[in-house]
Amino acid sequence: MRTLVVNAGSSSLKLSLVRDASETLVERELSAPRGQIDRDELTRAITDELRDADAVAHRIVHGGEHYVEPVLLTDEVVEDLRALTDLAPLHQPKSLAALDAVTRLLPDLPAVACFDTAFHATLSPAASTYAVPAEWRARWKVRKYGFHGLSHSWVARRAPQLLGAADDDLRIISCHLGAGASLCAIAHGESIDTTMGFTPLDGLVMATRSGSVDPGMLLWLLAHDAVAQGEMASVLEQESGLLALAGSADMKEVLARANGDDADATLAINVYVHRLAGAIAAMAAASSGIDVLVFTGGVGERAPEIRARATAGLAFLGFAIDEGANQRLAGDGDISAARSEVPTLVIRAREDLEMARQAKSVLAT
Question: Which of 45, 133, 224, 228 has its CA 20 to 30 A from that of 297?
């Protein structure tokens, strides 16, 4: 079975052809600024390199409370997903635009929706419930949804393979660090806590997102007309995080400047690592311990200094990283020191393989 995997991002459309949910045959990344897809470019890509697909798997950011597993796309399902746009107004339209564009080109192929929120459907009420009025929770479905579920789900499968352990034997803390960033505490192969919440804004400091901030501060800023209500979302989503602290959203650049004693970049890295280390410890508490720590995502895979600094203050949890292995590693592998009580792994983010696996499972039933 060959699956065309469609992953719409903030400014690009990633396409890959995956065979038997285990081997990526072709990868293409098309420019899609603000979710606008060039149909001619998409047509050429599919006609030239990706035409041999048997099915399509679409990454959909938000499945709401109803879609907690991958599902075959029908007209009814698509309409449901459009109705969920209000829960993810910056992300859902891009996913749906990609879905529409690919469906026009490949109308006869079965298509499966794979949800970023679905992996976190196993969160307990204690982990997913906000202490806000019941009317809010019932009427507006205000709760912790969590995101990056496809990446965390892949980690939940891949880490046991690398360690030769059973899926349900490990308590894993998965650190997906990219432009967006989130942690997930995984036990028995299921998500039991995560740092992102009702929206992907919550939790860690990210490239251009603030992460968690005091809601009282936001109310104060609005009340004092410091920020117009219409500007708040764009500021928190696109003008905060590393960009706000260091003037750059590029982790590689910020690290280089921090190593050159740039004060703003140094502060940005210190804030980033402080929040990350504290969240790792919180995830360990949520899972009553930890058996393996995993770094994934662009920063998680390619910034050894962030891995080293994040774990340096967590020796009490049993972490110790081998400096040489941490610097040399390319691809999936173990960077733990011999004395480490808890292994630390680096795993390449493979949402494409996870989505192809989910599509295969849906179409096999």
Answer: 45
Longest dimension (CA), the chain: 58
CB atoms within 10 A of CB 106: 18
Strand (E) or helix (H) holding 71:
strand 71-72
Asked if residue 88 lies in contact with residue 146, where contact means CB atoms within 8 angstroms, the answer is no
Those residues whose C-beta lies under 8 Å from the C-beta of residue 362, and which sit 6 or more positions away, are 70, 71, 72, 112
Task: Catalogue the active-site residues.
Answer: 116
Architecture of domain 164-346: 2-Layer Sandwich (3.30)
Q: Are 146 and 191 in contact (CB under 8 A)?
A: yes
Question: Quick one: DSSP state of residue 116?
Answer: T
Tell me what percent of the residues of the chain surpass a pLDDT of 70.
99
pLDDT bracket for residue 46 (50, 70, 90): confident
> DSSP label at 86?
G
CATH H superfamily, domain 2-115: ATPase, nucleotide binding domain (3.30.420.40)
Please determine whether the domains at 2-115 and 164-346 fall in the same fold group of CATH. Answer: yes
Q: How confident is the model at residue 49 (pLDDT cuts 50, 70, 90)?
A: confident
The residue written with tokens 């976190």 in the block is 120
Contact 302, 309 (CB under 8 A): no
Half-sphere CA count of 168, side-chain side, radius 13 A:
1
Distances in whole angstroms, Cα of residue 330 to Cα of each of 25, 143, 325, 346: 20, 38, 9, 9
Q: How far apart are CA 289 and CA 16, in angstroms?
A: 37
Rounded CA Rg of the chain: 20
Whole-number Å distance between alpha carbons of 194 and 183:
5
Domain boundaries, the chain: 2-115, 164-346
Residues 42, 105 contacting (CB under 8 angstroms): yes
